[in-house]
Every structure is written in structure tokens, then in C-alpha cells.
Design a protein that fits this description.
Number of strands: 9
Order of helices and strands: HEEEHHEHHEHEHEHHEHEH
Subcellular location: Membrane
Helix content: 40-55%
Low-confidence stretches: none
Mean pLDDT: 93
Distance between the termini: 50 Å
Bound molecules: ligand C2E, magnesium ion
Structural class: alpha/beta
Strand order of the largest sheet: 1-2-4-5-6-7-8-9
Protein name: EAL domain-containing protein
Radius of gyration: 21 Å
Length: 287
């Protein structure tokens, strides 16, 4: 009986795995067409400057409008794209789309906005990505200081020399560099000395309970002080409550990003919210 059950469990498990593998292959095939069919979209999440309550930057977060499965979040396809290498082309599309958006904004009421794009370590491996970013900026007549690149600590663990070289070139262009998900990446602090970092984004996992857990509060304060003493600005990710906001304001965090202000939203919705003055701590935007 036990043996039988064990075997059934095993069969069920392998079928599940096969099913997943089939789905994965299908998704990979679909990814192949997604760029050609223009199925990716950028959503934007504003960052609130705590010094003057202004919005001067937004993070671009990719979505895939899948023909059958609806709007897919990055977790459903970015890891797969990294495995298959398609991430290189997706990343190029993201950079180009961000620069096109900056060009649209640069002569109107939203000319102050900067866009932050996410680049994975895999994308930085690509020798020509820096050139591509420069070309995208030039083709759209956008100044490099409008663009920010967010990288996670993984880039300080592997290919360090190559990555330092890439980021130094990017920084020389005038692109701002941010370390994303700071504090969860197992890398050493030494790279803050060696790499041209402009911003640290404290990972959401420290912010969620920052007003309830002493250790999270201590870590968050320490990161803010460390960054400031190195001349680096700090963004808190995943701010959802007024209590978290107050804590961060009291401890001189520079910027916050999170559902308290707005969810990631399409460009048109962002423009509406900005002109209606809705992007503040009293009116969460987006569903
Ligand atoms: P990330 O760069 O750390 O982005 C922040 C994620 O947290 C976003 O999820 C955002 O929607 C979510 N978030 C923001 N505020 C809150 C909040 O208050 N509460 C909670 N619970 N979540 C919040 P999203 O859009 O699903 O993106 C997930 C990750 O996918 C990103 O993490 C980033 O690593 C990656 N990603 C997104 N767009 C791109 C892209 O264009 N290229 C690459 N390579 N990766 C991307
Ligand atoms: Mg990010
Ligand atoms: Mg992040
Ligand atoms: Mg994160």
C-alpha cells in the first residue's frame, strides 16, 4: 500500500514536471515572437522625493501582453529569457522603449522625469550593451543623465572586472547607476568603494516590518547612513504604509517607492496621475 502510494506520488511528480517542461518550451517559443509582435510594455512606478515631495524619477518595469495568457509579470518570463539568452534582445528593447518615452516627455510638463531601467547581470555580460544604450540615447535625442540603470548585487560577485569596466563606461556617459535590492545579495561592501554607484535601493524585505522589527530598523538606518557617508542617495522599496514613510523620513531616506504612492502603471496613467497631483502619500494610485 505504502509502496503503491509512493509510486503514484512519483508518477504524479514526473507528470507535473513534464507538464511544466512543455509549458516552458511553449513560453519560450512565444517569447520568440513577442518582440516581433510588439507584445512587451513598460509600466512605470514613481519614486517620491522625501525632501520636497516631488516626483523626478520613475522605474520602468516590463510586462508581457501575452496573446492568450494576458498581462504577464516579469517573474513569469525574465528567468526563462535569461536561461535562453533572449534577455539580451529584451533588454535592448527596454532601453530603446525607455529612451523613446524620455524623448516624448522631454519637451512637455514631464520633462523633469528620469527613467530607471533594470538590467540583469546576464545583460551586462553583453559586450555591446553600453554602446547600445549610448545609441538609444542619441537616436532619441535624450541626455544620458535622464537614464538610470538598476543592477543587483550579483554583478559584484561574478565577472567583476568586466562589470566594473562596463559600469565605468556607462557612468562616464552620464547614466546614473543604482544598486537594486540592496542588502540581500551576499556581496561584499568593498564594491561600494570601487564602483561608481549613485543610488542604493534598500530591499523591500527590510522595509516591510521596519516599524515593527528592531533589527530591520537598525539595518535600514545603517544602510542610509552608510550610503550618505559615501555620497550615495537612498531609495526605500516597497513602502506601503504611512508608518513606514514616517520612519524613513525621520531617518533621512531620500526617496521612497511603493504601493503607498502608486503601483506600476502605464505611461498614460502616470501622466494623468501626475497632472492631477495624485502621486502623493494620501492617494495610492493603480490597481
Ligand atoms: P525590482 O526591480 O526590485 O522591482 C520592484 C518590484 O516590486 C516590482 O515588481 C514592483 O511592482 C514591486 N513593488 C513595488 N512597490 C511595491 C510594494 O509597495 N509592495 C509590493 N509587494 N511590491 C512592490 P515587478 O514589476 O513584478 O518586477 C519584479 C522584478 O522583475 C523587478 O524587481 C526586476 O528585478 C525584474 N524586472 C522588471 N522589469 C525588468 C526589465 O525590464 N528587465 C529586467 N532584466 N528585469 C526586470
Ligand atoms: Mg528595480
Ligand atoms: Mg528592487
Ligand atoms: Mg526587489
Amino acid at each position: 500500500r505504502a509502496k503503491e502510494q509512493g509510486r503514484n506520488t512519483y508518477q504524479f511528480y514526473t507528470e507535473g514536471m513534464q507538464e511544466r517542461e512543455v509549458k516552458r518550451l511553449e513560453l519560450d517559443k512565444d517569447l520568440n515572437h513577442a518582440l516581433a509582435n510588439d507584445e512587451f510594455v513598460l509600466y512605470f512606478q514613481p519614486q517620491l522625493d522625501l525632501n520636497d515631495s516631488s516626483i523626478n524619477s520613475v522605474e520602468a518595469l516590463i510586462r508581457w501582453q501575452h496573446p492568450r495568457r494576458g498581462l504577464l509579470p516579469p517573474v513569469d518570463f525574465i528567468p526563462l529569457a535569461e536561461e535562453s539568452g533572449r534577455i539580451t534582445d529584451i533588454g535592448r528593447w527596454v532601453v530603446m522603449a525607455a529612451c523613446r518615452q524620455l524623448a516624448k516627455w522631454q519637451n512637455g510638463p514631464y520633462a523633469n522625469l528620469r527613467i530607471a531601467v533594470n538590467l540583469s547581470g546576464r545583460e551586462l555580460d553583453d559586450e555591446s550593451i553600453v554602446e547600445h544604450i549610448q545609441e538609444a540615447l542619441e537616436a532619441n535625442g535624450v541626455s544620458a543623465d535622464r537614464l538610470e540603470v538598476e543592477l543587483t548585487e550579483e554583478i559584484f560577485i561574478q565577472n567583476i572586472e568586466h562589470n566594473l569596466n562596463q559600469l565605468t563606461k556607462l557612468h562616464k556617459l552620464g547614466v546614473h547607476l543604482a544598486i537594486d535590492d540592496f542588502g540581500v545579495g551576499y556581496s561584499s561592501l568593498g564594491y561600494l568603494r570601487d564602483f561608481p554607484v549613485d543610488l542604493l535601493k534598500i530591499d523591500r524585505s527590510f522595509i516591510t516590518e521596519v516599524t515593527r522589527r528592531h533589527d530591520d530598523a537598525v539595518i535600514t538606518r545603517a544602510v542610509i547612513n552608510l550610503a550618505h557617508n559615501l555620497g550615495i542617495q537612498v531609495v526605500a522599496e516597497g513602502v506601503e504604509t504611512p508608518e513606514q514613510l514616517n520612519f524613513l523620513k525621520n531617518h533621512r531616506c531620500d526617496l521612497i517607492q511603493g504601493y503607498l504612492i502608486s503601483r506600476p502603471i502605464p505611461a498614460a496613467e502616470l501622466e494623468k496621475a501626475l497632472s492631477a497631483g495624485l502621486l502623493n502619500v494620501d492617494t495610492p494610485v493603480g490597481s
